[in-house]
Amino acid sequence: MTSDPLTHRVYRSLNRPLTIWGVERRFFFLALVIGSATFNFFGSLLAGLVMFLALYAFGRWISVTDPQILRILLNSSRLCRRYDPLKGSPSIRRRHLHD
Q: How far apart are CA 29 and CA 35, in angstroms?
């Protein structure tokens, strides 16, 4: 009796990050908000557009390089690596204020 391996179809769209104009959606809205805040602060449409376009270009480069880098950077501030020589592999623990 032969057992054929089970195969399940996985659609490519499930593994793709959600983007707007090629930039991860949270970073796109961050660039949009900072661009509008720059416009309101300086009262210059050119300054707001330049800020948005600069952040958009940076976000586009980050999305092409590594789509999860924003999540990694935000989580790295609250997690630190600690090595336990008895375990043989690094473990992650939460950083407390008294450390």
A: 10
